[in-house]
Fold this protein.
Amino acid sequence: MIWINKPSTKLGTLIRYSYLLLILVFLPGYLLVSHSERWWYLPLLAFGMLVLGKWVEGKVRFSLSPVLWMFLAVSLVGLSGWYTSPFLFLLVLAPGMYLLEGKLRGAFWICCADTVFLAVLGGWALGRGSAFWGYYILGLVVNTWLLFFLLREGQGSVARRLLYLEKLVDRDPLTGLGNRRALQRVVSTLVGQGTPFVLSIVDLDCFKECNDRYGHEKGDEVLQRFGTMLRFSVRQSDLVFRYGGDEFIVIFLGATPEMVGEVLRRIEEKLEESSLKVGMSWGMASFPEEAKDRIQVFRLADERLYALKRERKSTRSGQ
């Protein structure tokens, strides 16, 4: 339930003001019931502090909102008859509102306080033979369910956070492509499962000269743009990584070397037509036809890359 942890700003605002409006609607009834009580104004004071707290929310380092919500609910119940109070629903509603707002910590602590409060009031009503004890037991059941749900959701939130951080670790910060760590894991998995693929190492020609002539900022731009060009020139099922420096690796799943060679030649043509002042060379190896393990597929692709570079260099020298 991702939406619980990341509610939209509009949803959070709607929930917050709906709760405030609900309290305002029930305040006249509260005043009729409790006007003779000595401390009748305490819920009004708590309500005013809550409104002020929501106004400054985000501008202070801590929030007293959960404490104030609980104080408001308890004072409303206490000053309107305790176990005969018509405002019992506010005790269960408060953690529900915090849950929908995505504030799991606030919802958890309110749930804990509510559980104790409802248990005491339920026991009190039962001891006095009041029919209201059933309502408190029902509220206790709902609150206990919310508590278990919050604990489970909190664990899920931590797991999603760790997964998000792991994805960040697997990304090259400059190009947004997978990095060497992610590449090694993917290749090991594919080889372990026996999945056929073609691995291609793509190296930018004249990148060092471009870097020296135009500066590292221009060099970074070249890497970013070329990474984007690679990503959008291959199939969605193919995987693109930045191996390091000016080397990129593309894993073509379920493809043949002939198909891959055609795709790479099209990418080279695009690169020549672009404003980037670099060229490209590549070498490829297929698994399991040519290479039988992870080390061999990398070595074979690398050997073919440098063989092509030597061939092109000698061709240019002979012209």
The chain has two domains: 2-169, 180-318. The first strand starts at residue 197 and ends at 205.
